[in-house]
Write the structure tokens for this entry.
Amino acid sequence: MHPPLIPSSSGLKNYCCLMYAASLLIILPGGQALAQVVIQDTEFLHSNRPEAWAMNYVTSITLLSGLSVPRSRVPGSIEVGAELDWIPQLSASQQRIAFNGTHEVDVTKAPIFARPRITLGLPWRFALTLSYVPPIRVFGVKPNLFAFALERPLFERDPWTIGMRMYGQIGDVEGAITCPSDVVKFPPGSSENFFGCEKKSADRLSQHSAGLELSGSYRIERLRGLTPYIAVAGNFLDTRVQVNALTFGILDRNRLEAETWTFSTSAGIAYPMTNRLMLSVGMFYSPLWVTRPPAATSQNDGLLNVRALVTYQLK
């Protein structure tokens, strides 16, 4: 999955003062510094800023979309599953994100995002889905994400089904984005390390999201129960990036925050491989608007990816 993204764009005004701030360190006769200069500020971003776009892009990848349509379940039933999502790699122009889209950063470390799912049947045809990605470092990032969904069919009459899902997610992802390893190996201030990274950063992207999805499907019995589905959803994304980077001897602890409403749609097929085993594959798309300098107007640079889910009915 994608990691946290970028330093605060307010750091651009601070960058010009880095060398001056470094001179403010009080040096003892023994050569030790009395204090560490820290740059710490919070900036609230408009949803079309490149930094906000990047946070929305990463958060949209982890939205707990249905990959099927809610169906009636026996209360107390248990279904386990594994989800695997493809993460599109961003181009160089798309990765010009930091400092209001003027500096390129590496935000495409992971090619895939995977997580487990468990769905519990509840009374009144409700079902609860839970998912947790533990803080294990993979592809250079360490996620810690808990997602949940409450769903229910609204209409069931073979071969048609219409359902509704409410879902949410809380957690964060940590990684070296402000100062990645392929940058810190060069001398601070060089063309390869222009912003003076002295060691790998430990930036953190917090993801709080909620959504409401409406979906419908049509079961084709003559194709052994193959079920095409389509869904639309509205999402609220509350994101923030906490920078933790040492540049030119200055500790950058700036923070970016953004709140955005987004729309998403998905379509795919669900296929019962056995009475208990189900495979679902779908396309997910969410339009995301961004204004990249020198452009003065916003353009759509949305997320389009493929998602797959395998589930097994335990009871």
Remarks:
- The chain has five helices and 18 strands.
- Helices lie at 11-15, 18-23, 50-61, 98-101, 181-184.
